[in-house]
Amino acid sequence: MAQSLTGPYNTNACPACGADESRRLGDKHAYALWHCARCGVIYVNGQVDGGALGELYDHYYDRAQFETPAVVVAAYERLLRSCEPFRRTGRWLDVGYGEGGLLKMAEARGWNCYGSEVSPAALAYGAERGWTVSAEAETDARFPAQGFDVVSMVEFIEHVAAPERWLRAAARWLRPGGLLYLTTPNAASLNRRLLGVEWSIFCPPEHLTIWTARGLSAALVKTGFQPQRIRAEGFNPCEIIARWASRRAQQDEAVAVDRNQTALALNTALSGARWRRAVKAGINQCLSALQIGDGLKVWAVRCERPMNGTSE
Question: Which DSSP helix (H) or strand (E) runs through 214?
């Protein structure tokens, strides 16, 4: 995760589209969740406990192996190929680079790698790799304005208490015509529709804003980007199955499942053979067409003339 995650939300407006048309969806972990009637984004409304976040993210990667699963490597290879036409300066910035899998592969392809993180373990790993890394990239002079071809935010924007600030920072870092690539959970997903706030994606204070394609588009345009492509892909049925099984067994609560591990196992199983990959691609096309996949993947280009406040 990247730096400066604490801070108050605007308690009157959606953090994506700015509309004051939200209704209270429910509570989770003592935090109120609000659903924007205009763009569908679901967000925590109110002050976030900075001490709790600091304790969480300081130790986020203490046990990390800094190894990338083969199925993730394949996805990153596809991403890197799609970003090659944007190479001008040769600089790539990964905001919230985590275990560094994406930067490691970018480095192998000749990119000059920069990264933003708060976890001491992740920062130490990045420094050992020779990357330019910082816990305060917004004020670090080594991160030049308009100096990057690509800025990536993989599973990052849902964690921060001021998402618009981070999108504006990405616009400042990118050269005109540079690419922002981000991924984040989808508030319009089938899992959310069936599980509601019980979906494990809703886990404040770790996840503070769960986005929709419409909400992301609005936020990107407002901060100086032109969205090029938004995909809604992936479906992990394990939590739905666990809830169904608990009802059959007349249990009060579903058996807990590890969403990340089960998703990785399912993705690996569907990537093992050509016909399985074809099935996976077909499923993802359907999910994306209906905008009900578990996760959003976004490609957006920094405008030649960004909105006020997005460039130095």
Answer: helix 213-222
Please name which of 147, 141, 132, 137 lies closest in space to residue 89, comparing C-alpha atoms: 147
CA distance 282 to 265: 19
- The reported pTM is 0.91
3 state DSSP class of 51? helix
The DSSP code for 248 is: H
Answer for the pair 303, 226: CB distance below 8 angstroms, yes or no.
yes
- Structural domains of the chain in order of their starting residue, each with its CATH number: 22-234+292-302 (3.40.50.150)
> Residue 89 burial by CB count (10 A; 0-12/13-18/19+): exposed, middle or buried?
middle
Of 42, 13, 11, 39, give the one whose Cα is nearest residue 25: 42
Q: What would the pLDDT profile of 165-193 be if each residue is shown by its tens digit?
A: 999 999 999 999 999 999 999 999 999 99
